[in-house]
Amino acid sequence: MKSTFRPRLLNGQTGDPALLLNLRWQGRALLVDLGRIDRTPAPVLLPI
Question: Which backbone phi and psi does 31 adopt, to 5 degrees?
Fold first, then answer.
């Protein structure tokens, strides 16, 4: 059984914490513990 969430650290393990949870098959995402995301490309942020 596949997970509905696909977690990803946006700024790596040593950067400011921001966790992106992509919702598989829905074209949506959740952003948790918003940190510094100014280096994150726009296509990654658009589904939020």
Answer: -110, 125
Helices (H), 1-48: 42-45
HEC secondary structure over 8-40: EECCCCCCCCCEEEEECCCCEEEEECCCCCCCC
Strand arrangement of the beta sheet that strand 19-23 belongs to: 5-9, 19-23, 28-32
Question: Residue with structure tokens 């059984």?
Answer: 1
Tell which residue, 35, 46, 42, has the closest CA to residue 10: 35
> Could you tell me how many residues make up the chain?
48
Calculate mean pLDDT across residues 33-40: 76
pTM value surpassing 0.70: no
